[in-house]
Amino acid sequence: MEMGYSHLFEMSTFLEAFGTLEGWGFILSLIIIEGLLSADNALVLAAIVNKLPEKQRRKALLYGLWGAYVFRIIAIGVGIYLVQIAWVKYIGAAYLLWIAIKHFWDKARGSGGDGEDGEEDSGLQKLLAKTGLSLFVRTIITVEMMDIAFSIDSILAAFAISPNPWILIAGGLLGILMMRLVATVILKLMDKVPELENAAFVLIFIIGVKMILSTAKIYEMSHEMFFIILVAVFAITFLINRIRGRKNAVQ
């Protein structure tokens, strides 16, 4: 089902998102994926604003949050049109497959890609330092740029899940808010169940495959099948965690 941005103002589109269990299921799926992919990013942003005086830290994060919201809405508005072009869908799907494969490749090589965000932040901060802007303004710009970089993966995944603009906006905005508010809780859960990180990238891979098959008109995955796969991935993840926990306890 393809949708234009004008459908945002149609009552049927709104009800499809908020008046059905299916719509809320999609929104919840987007929130979960956003949270799992971005929990560590929230701590990166916290480290950036930590350079400011205490009174300015909350302000910088608040401005960054609103900037992330504005960017997400603009990206969804533009993306609704772009994802109707087949080659754009293929590029988006290929990117999702690439980040999933890269995650497991880095894990297999024993480098998890740690430190990349910190290096990007450092380079950006050095560049901004030459502009003569105040530390507060430079920090807000850095937070905004990092927010945009962090959003690309989840925006592409969202478009592969549903074309409904209300679902995309609600899932994305609630996901950003949740990521900022409960990042520490999510990270603690991921410390207890480290396999959750892998589960997120397994889902990203599945979503990329889903987008390719749908665009090529080979197979259109039903909403029910997607939710079954989502539940199965998390069920298997927790099962693997319990099995590993018992093995470690025996040793």
Description of the molecule:
The chain is mainly α and 251 residues long. It has one domain. The protein is built from 10 helices and no strands. The longest helix has 29 residues. The relative contact order is 0.17. Belongs to the TerC family. It is found in: Membrane. It is a multi-pass membrane protein. It holds the Pfam family TerC.
N-to-C CA distance: 52 Å
**Structural class from helices and strands?**
mainly alpha
Give the quaternary arrangement of the chains: single chain
Low-confidence segments, given as residue ranges, are none
Rounded to the nearest angstrom, the radius of gyration is: 19 Å
Shape descriptor reads: globular
User: How many strand units?
Assistant: 0
Q: How would you characterize the largest beta sheet?
A: none
Total of domains: 1
Q: Counting H and I runs of at least 4 residues, what is the number of helices? A: 10
Order of helices and strands: HHHHHHHHHH
Report strand %.
under 5%
Query: Kindly state the mean pLDDT as a whole number?
Result: 78
Work out the helicity level.
over 70%
Keywords: Membrane, Transmembrane, Transmembrane helix
Membrane topology: Multi-pass membrane protein
Pfam families: TerC
Organism: Saccharibacillus kuerlensis
